[in-house]
Amino acid sequence: MTVDAELAARTLKKLLSAGERLPDKVRREILGLQHSAVEPLLEILADDELAMSDAPGRGFAPVHAVWLLSELRADAAIDPMLAVLAETEWETILHDAIVVALPKMGAAVLEPALRSYAEQDLGDARESLASILAALDVRDDRILAILREQLAVDPQLGAGDLARYGDPRALDDLVRAFDAYHVFDTDHPFGHQALIDIVDAIEELGGTLTPAQARKYARAMEPYERWRRRRAAERAVSTTKPTKTDSPGRNEPCWCGSSKKYKKCHLDEDQAESRGEGIQP
Fold first, then answer.
1. DSSP string covering 116-155, please?
2. CB neighbours (10 Å) of residue 92?
3. Which end of the chain lies in a sparser environment, N or C, as judged by fewer CB atoms within 10 Å?
4. CB–CB of 103/268 below 8 Å?
């Protein structure tokens, strides 16, 4: 074993016992290995026993490997990450880490992600791949076609991805999705979350609601507004701030009490905190 390989082995061993939060010193050591760290990190990512391990910290090692490979911008990691994505379920820690980390690797992800999308059946993998493509900051009509397809399958997920993609050509699709939405009776404050996300996307892309559409939206928002007023009254007599318990799913309402999805509100901050990075003001 070469000196570099021995250093990589010693340093990566620390990763296996790091726990939920990767110490910044270990992170810097691994990133400092640069290319020498890629193969060992890929081995950790591919180790099913590590991903399923109940041993303290070991179940988080593949998650840390995903973030490190992303920071290293290791193109060799793209296909392995996509393979793990296809084998894991939406809203599991490893799956969601890949959804957020892959777009940070830029345009190199485009073609592999498009191929993977074409190979998948309808379901979690395709939804996750659409979210990755939307966040790539790459303009490609194939991405827009996929996002339009996902909007028809799931208006809530599709609207958020179209907003992130940022192409105003999707406005007509979003308006049609709004008009097709049925406002039903509910007391749940987030019962019409899909419509909230559609309207958010319309506004983010520069669109506006007609007066008739605005009345429909106001009617759908009545349960949320009642809940919001009640929460405001409770906070007025309490000094306790909203706190996070178990993190919600990426597409569930954020724990802080906003009407936004978790992924559009506190997800990035919470994930950065879990990696020990913090959020810079």
1. HHHHSPSSHHHHHHHHHHHTS----HHHHHHHHHHHHH-H
2. 14
3. C
4. no
Q: What is the pTM of this model?
A: 0.80
Environment class of 209 (CB within 10 Å of its CB; exposed 0-12, middle 13-18, buried 19+): middle
Tokens linked to 177: 């999705």
| Rounded Cα gap, residues 10 and 261, in angstroms | 40
Rounded CA separation 113/108 (Å): 9
Q: What are phi and psi of 238, to 5 degrees?
A: -135, 145
Q: What's the rounded Cα separation, in Å, for the pair 14 and 65?
A: 12
Q: What is the pLDDT of residues 91-133, one digit of tens each?
A: 788 899 999 999 999 999 999 999 999 998 867 789 999 999 9
How far is residue 279's CA from residue 271's CA, in Å, rounded to a whole number? 10
Which residues lie across from 253 on neighbouring strands? 261
Burial status of residue 20 (CB atoms within 10 A of its CB: 0-12, 13-18, 19 or more):
middle
78 closest CA partner among 51, 61, 95, 102? 102
- Two tokens, residue 159: 């609207």
Among residues 22, 102, 117, which one has the least CA distance to residue 61?
Answer: 22
